[in-house]
Structure to design on (249 residues):
């Protein structure tokens, strides 16, 4: 597995820090928490961050002041800056982008959108978030076996555990149902990467399958499953401090 990239997370409340920190950790980042832009700048002098994730639910002047700090200080001004804010904020998305923000995303978070944006900003190779899973997948071709176990899944594909992975570019026809689901999913997939069984195991042996022409309804099913598995236990609930700050806007 690649090393987690470090992300500077700036949130004014402990509840927001916990939520955003947990989300980032689960999608393979290493969050470092700060309460203010000034505190974040101080941290950046000793920690090599890949990007900044900023909870922007602040009064307008405080938000603009924080952005000014983050876009002018030499230690952070070149880092990609992703903002998260509630709809109907005091400052429009267009104005925030004009202030030098790299991306603006609205709460509640769409995990696929967040993952895709942060991957693009940080140079991560994957497009979709994936969730650990354990379910049977039938292989119509019967090779390398008639049934294999899926160990993780995303909107883009799944990973099948096997000690005899097939060659890349092999096309397979798959049949499976999601955990706790009742509908059977049938789709084609292409082998795009493999991991052999080795003496020193860094990952489970198997093969990564990329879905081919997955119907949109099926893609949405998988997206909902992944989002629930990764962050279904989390809620970004405003605290008393959040309400106090929002009233100032």
């Amino acid at each position: 597995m690649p090393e987690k990239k470090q992300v500077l997370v700036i949130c004014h409340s402990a509840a927001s820090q916990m939520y955003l920190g947990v989300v980032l950790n689960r999608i393979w980042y290493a969050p470092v928490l700060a309460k203010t832009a000034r505190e974040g700048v101080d941290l950046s002098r000793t920690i090599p961050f890949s990007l900044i994730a900023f909870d922007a639910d602040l009064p307008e002047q405080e938000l603009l002041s924080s952005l000014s700090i983050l876009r002018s200080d030499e230690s952070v001004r070149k880092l990609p800056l992703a903002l998260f804010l509630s709809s109907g904020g005091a400052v429009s998305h267009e104005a925030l982008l004009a202030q030098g923000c790299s991306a603006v995303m609205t709460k509640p978070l769409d995990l696929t959108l967040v993952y895709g944006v942060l991957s693009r900003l940080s140079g991560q190779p994957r497009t979709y978030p994936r969730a650990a899973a354990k379910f049977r997948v039938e292989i119509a071709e019967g090779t390398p076996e008639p049934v294999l176990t899926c160990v993780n899944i995303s909107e883009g594909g799944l990973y099948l555990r096997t000690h005899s992975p097939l060659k890349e570019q092999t096309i397979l026809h798959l049949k499976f149902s999601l955990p706790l689901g009742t509908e059977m999913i049938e789709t084609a997939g292409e082998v795009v990467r493999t991991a052999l069984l080795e003496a020193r195991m860094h990952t489970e042996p198997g093969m990564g399958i990329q879905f081919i022409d997955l119907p949109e309804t099926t893609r949405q099913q998988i997206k909902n499953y992944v989002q629930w598995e990764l962050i279904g236990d989390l809620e970004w609930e405003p605290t008393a401090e959040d309400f106090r700050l929002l009233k100032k806007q």
About this structure: The radius of gyration is 21 Å. Helices lie at 14-26, 37-44, 60-72, 93-98, 111-122, 216-231, 240-247. The first helix runs from residue 14 to 26.
